[in-house]
Amino acid sequence: MTDSIDYGSLMHGAMRSLIKTVLLDVKEHGLPGEHHFFITFDTTHPDVQIADWLRERYPNEMTVVVQHWFDDLEITEIGFSITLNFGDAPEPLYIPFDALRTFVDPSVEFGLRFEANEDEEDETILHSVDDEIDIEIEEAPFEAEPEVKEDAPQQEAEVVSLDAFRKP
After folding, report:
1. Within a 10 A sphere around the Cβ of 84, how many other Cβ atoms?
2. What are the strands of the beta sheet with 100-105, ordered from one edge?
3. In this structure, is the dihedral angle defined by the CA atoms of residues 55, 115, 80 and 45, taken in order, positive or negative?
4. pTM exceeds 0.70 for this model
């Protein structure tokens, strides 16, 4: 038995389980209403499977949009596969859950960001999409760009950091 509880790993597991549950529901019922996802992942992860031309274009990370057209969504305990449309060319992708960097559903102002802290331990930060999260949507031939509501009220979001609870 260890001397401490690894809350960082437990949080990451819970957040990845949440994403898995959401994707399973989308597979079964489709995307409800205006829901859509921006999913950023580490393209250097050894288990990521993407076309060579995508890996060349996005050598470190890639953001995909799951919105109007997607196919062959399959979810396992350790990742998911999906076929997305890139410039009218369907491309299959396989993304392990531990390669995820962000998962955002801007339709409901929900976002998760997975980061590594200075000790290379994982840390999860929960925040609102309105808080100008550091997601750079790469210019790519995705289906559509999200609608931005200019008159939406800006709210302060609370950032939860696990560092405050760590023993020195």
Report:
1. 21
2. 61-66, 37-42, 100-105, 110-116, 122-127
3. positive
4. no
Three-point CA angle 142, 42, 166, nearest 5° = 130
Residue range 55-65: mean pLDDT, rounded: 92
- Mean per-residue pLDDT for 33-50? 92
Bridge-based pairing state of the strands 122-127 and 110-116: antiparallel
**Where in the chain does DSSP place strands (E)?**
37-42, 61-66, 70-75, 79-86, 89-96, 100-105, 110-116, 122-127
Assess contact for 44 and 59: CB atoms under 8 A. Answer: yes
- Amino acid present at 60: N
pLDDT tens for 6-30 read 888 888 889 888 999 999 999 999 8
Tens of pLDDT, residue by residue over 127-160, are 334 443 333 333 333 344 444 444 545 445 445 4
| H-assigned helices in 1-147 | 7-29, 52-57
Rg of the chain on CA atoms, in Å: 17
